[in-house]
Amino acid sequence: MQNISEQEKIRREKLEYLKEKGIAPFGQKYVRTDNAKTVVEKYDKYTKEELEEKHFEVSIAGRMIAKRRQGKIGFINIQDKFGNTQCYIAKDMIGEENYDVFIKSDIGDILGIKGYVMRTNTNQLTVKCTEFTHLTKALRPLPEKFHGLQDVEEARRRRYVDLIVNEESRKVAFMRPRIIRAVQHFFDGQGFVEVETPVLQPILGGAAARPFVTHHNALDMEFYLRIATELPLKRLIVGGMEAVYEIGRLFRNEGVDAKHNPEFTTVEAYLAYADMYDMMDLIENFFKEVTTEVLGTTTLEFDGHTYDLSKFRRVHMVDAIKDKTGVDFWQPMSFEDASKIAKEHGVEVPNHFTGVGHIINAFFEKYCEDDMVEPTLVYGHPVEISPLAKRNDKDPRFTDRFECYIGGTEYANAFSELNDPIDQLGRFTEQLEERKLGNDEACEIDTDFVEALEYGMPPTGGIGIGIDRLVMLLTGKTNIRDIILFPHNRQRGKKD
Q1: pTM of the model
Q2: pLDDT at 103 over 60
Q3: What's the pLDDT at 1?
Q4: What is the average pLDDT across 361-383?
Q5: CB atoms < 10 A from the CB of 6, how many?
Q6: Number of domains observed in the structure of the chain
Q7: Does residue 92 lie in a domain region?
Q8: Cα(489)–Cα(491) distance, integer angstroms
């Protein structure tokens, strides 16, 4: 037997009351002519006298979120996806029987209201009800007015309640698809074609991350939920599609924190006959156009800081480290020398580190990453940590790769794609050695991808951009779970 509160018990009694009245407590189709947005758009221009004269009839429906009654009249607020509309209910307008149904209606019930648009004595636009329809009985009460769900984690678990009572949550929920449309508009406008690639992949590749593993019974094969869309998309470049992008879900079996969720969304794009510098121009234009389409400006406030996303600086990773620590990794040195310097600066050197490049990246992450506050493109990543990027022609210790940082957070990763199949096989082999030494995030050897490169892939620039972090930036949210409708949460009672 389900344990129910006193309020829930009373609501179930009202459910039986509706049935006795011949009213379906969980309703039927209801035809709406208007909503909170159109009522204002159409009728806000009229005065009280003009509305009384013109007698505009509307039909709206939504959830009752406020109710005030005195004797034979009452006011309610009906909430739909666009906002809420005040309605005036009078016993002499809807009849005694319907007024009794109105009296017994609870906050949270879903109602249909048909009537005429009017203005109250305080000039508020209101629907004067002539036909009252009870559509759905809410068996659970909403959280207290003005307080909502005080437990943030509970709000994320019961997003459906959060969306009802929290206007900010509704705003973010509707903003996210607008941002994704703007991303599509940008890439479509640049001549890219949107494609779809498999979520289940037999080879772990395209990024450094721990995967989720599953088993396909019919094929009797192990599959990974994809950690990146990179390798299938580059196969399409080999196939001659030349400019492709995919907005898709990725899955990584890693920690959960303010910036990471086990499943998340990215956009990856690949452009034939381009390089890292074209991708730098692309990401700068991307932020300009997407933020302008969504916000109407390239300047925004985020986490107490003002950013102008029309201006990016570019800095080499080694120069950033030198400026911060004084260590000059431009100088040739052995792995042993670099390890000694790392120890002197408190930088850990795990067993799977095999080259100076690993230590350079560890230095950057420890000393520089958080300092990348202003919009910055950090380029020149070591070859050891960039198995899919092309080597720099002038200094093969580094690759033509960059990451985009705003507020110390990475938003994009891009490079001149490695299209040499011999070099690519060698990089995969090095990754396999790292895996044996304990790096669980190292890639596997994707022989089919190497074979694809052997058919010839044109020089190509590629980029991956985090959609969730972009949404956080444009909505001012500092926790990824506030911009994902249904984030993954710990079990109740367990602490983060």
Answers
A1: 0.91
A2: yes
A3: 45
A4: 97
A5: 7
A6: 2
A7: yes
A8: 6
